Amino acid sequence: MSWKLKAAKVQLAPALAANSIALGFIKNPDLTFSFVGPTQLIAEIQNHFEVELVDELTFFNPTGKAGELFEIPVSAVDSKTDRIFLVGLGDSLTPAMRIAATSIARKVKGKNTTVYSACAITDRDVKAHAIALTLGAYLWNLKTGDPAGVPTFLVATNNKENINVAISTAKAITRARDLVHTPSNIKTPAWMATKAQEFAQGTGLKVKVLAGKDLVEFGGLCAVGNSSPKPGPRFIQISYAPAKEKKVNNALPHVVLVGKGITFDTGGINLKRPYDLMIPMKSDMSGAAAILATLTALEELQPNVRVTALMMCAENAISGTAQRPSDVIKHYGGTTVEVADTDAEGRLVLADGLAYADKNLDPDYLVDIATLTGAATVGLGKQYAAMYTRDEKLAREFESAGITSGDRVWHMPLVDDYKDGLVSEVADFNHISRKIKYSAGSVMAALFLEHFAGNRRWVHLDIAGPARSETDSGENPKGGTGFGVRLLTEWITNL
Ligand code: BES
Ligand code: MN
Ligand code: ZN
């Protein structure tokens, strides 16, 4: 873990024990400055270090935008503190609390140092700020030599429980990121199964892994995954149920999450080109990583629901055993599908997972999450996931969980008029639209998947955009973002 996070009392003593103190300011309409955090504590800090922080700000004359940061050197005989970070809080709403946190975090990323942050007041802001501190400090690499230092964030609050929730969530996001960052020569489908077992060890989570002959009915997963010589595809099922109240478990709502776990996507015989498009494809298992990580958070938070995660793991390789365009495969449950483009592999593995869940798991809610289409990114960019559902109530729930958690989603239409694009002459369906191949690609994928979700309350999340960041900025490192963990954790804990 590249960070530590703890709750600290809103008092002078813990602040003075830290190497630096972070305070948040806003620029008022009359161009004066004020602080947003705990008033009395901020006054005590100023007295202790004999500084006038508003004077300092007046001198720097910042714009006040969120994340702007000034470093004030301070010293006092009885304190370890040698810096006060003054950080802009913009409009001081929750998203600004996150941005401010990432500025602070980037200052201390990779350093063995302690920061006491007193920027946020409400529980909601404290939680968002605390999680964002860890996200901004995230580091991952396989460099040998001296390991990087680990900053400790002390978040000022008298609600320790709220920080415990933030810690569980932040740990899960970090885990998801680590999985995504791991390169694909290490990250085989079998490795993903080992990780699931490792995370579940010593907890109440149960893991079941299917491989080889046990996957015969999973025609989509096998067609994609058998392109890779070894190890082959894996179906990884992780289940969560609350430790207490075991008796009423069967009456609890059951959520089934299905995640795309393509450990590398070459495109297969429809090879990705130009090859720059292939480089980021180690992150094509971000959906599977998000649901696995979410379950580890839920295990700590113990919400009163049952959750089953199905990680559909396979490598989409190019080889002598790779599927061919024009192949017809039989999905779990028997539906036949004509494969027109081996690079549209994600929906093939998800279809098996959805059909399996519908047939065997009796889900009250069925949610799939996948880096499915470049088209979703064309439409929405990298800050919103494309969400598909016919259930308006669920759509509202996900939208609101997205805004609260920071993992935002946009409700997209399942356009019935486009369904004839999936008609095949030789199978039940074509998995892509050949008529309008380059139009509504994300919608077409959703319409294909819908068939396999039966009559369940179903949500499809296309996270091709937000799962990965091309730059080290804001909450995200360059690479895997862990998108979906906060969203799913927020939605599930509110059910
Ligand atoms: N994994 C890709 C989608 C993707 C693209 C994710 C860019 C993240 C960034 C997916 O398997 C894919 O190749 N989709 C094709 C579908 C097409 C062949 C119908 C796409 O989006 O081009
Ligand atoms: Mn692909
Ligand atoms: Zn893919």
What's the gist of this structure?
This protein has 495 residues and is an alpha/beta fold.
Structural account:
The chain is α/β, with parallel strands linked by helices and 495 residues long. The protein folds into two domains: 4-155, Leucine Aminopeptidase, subunit E, domain 1 (3-Layer(aba) Sandwich); 169-493, Zn peptidases (Aminopeptidase), CATH 3.40.630. Helix content is 33%, strand content 21%. It has 14 helices and 20 strands. It has helices at residues 12-16, 39-49, 53-60, 94-108, 123-136, 160-181, 189-200, 219-225, 286-301, 346-360, 374-380, 392-405, 441-450, 485-493, and strands at residues 4-8, 20-27, 33-35, 69-73, 83-88, 114-117, 152-156, 206-210, 234-240, 254-265, 306-316, 328-330, 336-338, 365-370, 385-388, 409-412, 429-430, 458-462, 468-469, 479-480. The strands form four sheets. Strands 8-9-11-10-14-18-15-16 form an eight-stranded mixed β-sheet, sandwiched between helices. The protein is elongated and about 80 Å long. The mean pLDDT is 96. Bound molecules: ligand BES, manganese (II) ion (MN) and zinc ion. Zinc ion binds next to strand 10.
Keywords:
14 helices, binds manganese (II) ion, binds zinc ion, seven-stranded mixed β-sheet, 495 residues, 2 domains, alpha/beta, binds ligand BES, Leucine Aminopeptidase, subunit E, domain 1, Aminopeptidase, elongated
